[in-house]
Amino acid sequence: MTPPAIRVAGLTRRFGSVTALDRVDFEVEPGTVFGLLGPNGAGKTTAIRILTTILRPTEGRAEVLGRDVVAHPAAVRRLIGLAGQYAAVDPNLTGRENLRLIGRLTQQPTGRLAPRAAELLDAFDLTGAADRPVRTYSGGMRRRLDIAAALVPEPPVLFLDEPTTGLDPQSRTALWQLIRELVADGTTVLLTTQYLEEADRLAHRVAVLAEGRVVADDAPGVLKDRLGTTVIELGMGEEPRAHRAAAVITTRLDRTAEREGSLLRLATPDGSLLLMDVLHALEDENLTPHTIAVREASLDDVYLALTGHRTGDTP
């Protein structure tokens, strides 16, 4: 059996009286994308910082390719690449100069610096801007260069901390494709994200973090199936009507509807059958919905059901 590329067991980190990570456990298989999903303050970045040897854990253990991050930090650093939330490239150097500098800092062979920089500039569609100062780059170009810099030493494990935050949709889609190509070539990727769609599109497995704890860990499809295959959303127009409608659904149908302002949401495997029952029950109480939507369950629905709030919220 192939050992995991990343193993985390009982990982805990406290900052004074604040517990950022609370006995976190997960494993990442080689050559896959593992998503750490959660809102600001859930502990995602703290986990990344421990795994990349920037922070020491208060308790617990973390390993990258069998190397303990506390006992053998230098060995771990030789195996990983890291692209944090903010681009770490020098804005006054050109893209090419930045990549060559990273090559020297990571002690790559001198004769390999120029070819490796050229390879990455081409792979990340930056050849045309290679000899321009990075301060002239767009946000998407800087992000691509930052990830290219993390790949200069060809690390088998890559950590991406909210890699597409602040990018426009086109740049985000392009970056997703680059991540898929890296994984196809054998790289293991651990990424943190607030974007449900990102985790759904990229991750083979997702750990949902809430207030420093793992509240779910499975494949995205399994998490969605666990919630229910269909989501019914009823716009009631006003919060008092939504409150009354939720009470009717509970009393008449023995179902619980999540209420978000004037919107009611029900997850179910029954789909249209439940919708008909709900509409009949509400009509009897003169509570006809203003809007009705029926759609497939998403990771956003899973996260809301698990934590009681959306990933964009700060707990």
Automatic annotation (TrEMBL):
Keywords: Antibiotic resistance, ATP-binding, Cell membrane, Membrane, Nucleotide-binding, Translocase, Transport. InterPro entries: AAA+_ATPase, ABC_transporter-like_ATP-bd, ABC_transporter-like_CS, ABC_transporter_ATP-binding, DrrA, P-loop_NTPase. Pfam families: ABC_tran. Residues 6-236 form the ABC transporter domain. It is found in: Cell membrane. The keyword Transferase does not apply. Belongs to the ABC transporter superfamily. Drug exporter-1 (DrugE1) (TC 3.A.1.105) family. PANTHER family: ABC TRANSPORTER ATP-BINDING PROTEIN, DOXORUBICIN RESISTANCE ATP-BINDING PROTEIN DRRA. This is Daunorubicin resistance ABC transporter ATP-binding subunit. The lineage of its organism: Bacteria, Bacillati, Actinomycetota, Actinomycetes, Kitasatosporales.
